[in-house]
């Protein structure tokens, strides 16, 4: 039994079974329900001193498959331009603005 400070949120475990996860990957062995549930249980430890950190989670087999150093340690995003948010436009104009920018 886990010490009190390692207790996982019970709501996480209710109904968690292999049926709640996608079928285990045939291409990537680390993408399986056991790894997914293990990571979730480590992320939902009540006591933050014992909860997995972001850095630890990024190295976890279920996540590390998608971890790319150049994306994490890359340059910051450009400054957001919020100038259009002050505009008083009708719905059709907003739709056109979105369409034009996408």
Would you spell out the secondary-structure blueprint of this structure?
Blueprint: H1 10-13, H2 33-43, H3 54-59, H4 61-64, H5 69-72, H6 91-101
Description:
The protein has 102 residues and is mainly α. It has a domain at 4-72. The protein is built from 6 helices and no strands. The protein has helices at 10-13, 33-43, 54-59, 61-64, 69-72, 91-101. The longest helix has 11 residues, at 33-43. It is elongated and about 50 Å long. It starts with 9 loop residues before the first helix and ends with a helix. 1% of the residues are buried.
Strand tally: 0
Low-pLDDT residue intervals, each spanning 5 or more residues: none
Distance between the termini: 53 Å
Tell me, rounded to a whole number, the average pLDDT: 79
**General shape:** elongated
Q: Which structural class is indicated by helix and strand composition?
A: mainly alpha
User: Which series of helices and strands comes N to C?
Assistant: HHHHHH
Biggest β-sheet strands, sense, barrel = none
- What integer value in Å does the Rg equal? 21 Å
Question: Beta-sheet strand percentage?
Answer: under 5%
């Amino acid at each position: 039994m886990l010490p009190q400070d390692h207790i996982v949120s019970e709501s996480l475990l209710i109904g968690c079974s292999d049926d709640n996860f996608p079928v285990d990957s045939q291409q990537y062995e680390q993408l399986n329900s056991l790894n997914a549930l293990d990571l979730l249980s480590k992320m939902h430890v009540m006591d933050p001193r014992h909860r997995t950190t972001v850095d630890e989670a990024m190295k976890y087999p279920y996540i590390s498959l998608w971890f790319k150093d150049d994306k994490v340690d890359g340059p910051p995003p450009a400054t957001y331009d919020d100038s259009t948010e002050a505009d008083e436009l009708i719905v059709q104009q907003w739709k056109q603005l979105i369409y034009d920018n996408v």
